[in-house]
Write a structure and sequence with these properties.
Blueprint (H helix, E strand, L loop, with lengths): L2 H28 L1 H7 L4 H28 L2 H20 L4 H15 L2 H12 L5 H26 L5 H22 L14 H9 L2 H31 L4 H28 L4 H20 L9 H14 L4 H9 L5 H18 L3 H9 L9 H13 L9
Length: 397
Amino acid sequence: MNKKIRGVLVWLIATLFVVYSFCLNTAAAVFSAPIKASLHATDFTVALATGAFILGFACMQIPAGYLLDKFNARFVVSGGILLLALGNTIISFSDNLLIFSLSNFVQGLGASFAFIAAAVLISQWFRAKSFPVLFGLTQTISCISAGIIHYYFTLALEVYSWNDIYHVLAVFGFALFVLSILIVKTPATYKRGRPLSLAKSLAVVLKNKQLWLCTIAAAASFGVLLAYASFWYAPIQQFYQVANTQAVIVSGMIFFGIGIGTPLLGYLSNRAKSRVKIIHLSLVLGTMALLLGIYLPHYDIQTLAIIKVVSFLIGFLLSGSMLFYTIASELSKDNTRGVAISMVNTAVFLVNTLLLFLPYIFVTVFSTQFFTNLWILPICILFAVLLVSFVKDTYSK
């Protein structure tokens, strides 16, 4: 098979892996009501059971990056997909909360490979200049696909049970596993370098001050964007008395902005021959848009045109923070790239999770009005802007 065609197919499978893992990560939230009813659970226990996915995801991030650095991508990526599909299959037959929780944990273990695998495979099969564009397109496809799939999940629940929908997803997972075994591999010409132990890989990565700057800045910017897009937009729209149907559209505009912004800003960073300049500009403008999204009154409650445009700009501009993954890739050698990218992704994931609760802590201690404490979100991004001043540009011809 032609190398270019093989590379494109490998990227497509890695992207489908990201879409599959993202859908399973959020599916439990879509199915929470019927799951609660069929498993005779409470809101609290269902939240704990769905949180098992997050626990598995967090535990496997660094090991997943290390395995991708050390072994042929065919076996590591296929193993991650198989683990995700097995967890998906078990959860589809769950008849009690314990099995549901354990299978959700297994799903999280498998899903932890997806995002890092896409980054590592792109770096192995394509030129460095292609990384921000293709990695951005992976994000675009996953955002758009997940939105469409979740819409059809909602419709399907009117006819089918949540178990039946999980059955269909499991079939897709095993089909993707077969495709991965047949197509995905590390290129024969790829020079991995001297293999390192996990401890030595971590030591190399943790000693790199520039990687630490990128990790913290990515967490303080992209982590904030994810927290806002997935959670905080909803209470803000409720405060301004926006109908739920319109609030869903507002959320969709944020993810639409992320989907358009990530590959386009990656392309612009190539044209500008600078990662840092594009990150700095996008984060400053994105902070302005975020402040508007949080505090700008909704003047036209009928069309909500202003807030929809602002929401798109929030996603579009702050998606420039995805370039921190590109810098992490360009800072790393071939035998530590997976660990480096997994370190960035772990920090983003942890800050995203923390920011779902941190403003509530301020509400409980200092105030009764939640939105006055959402200054935490733009402050975090401005902190990332400050750190960018110390990040060295990694763009190279």
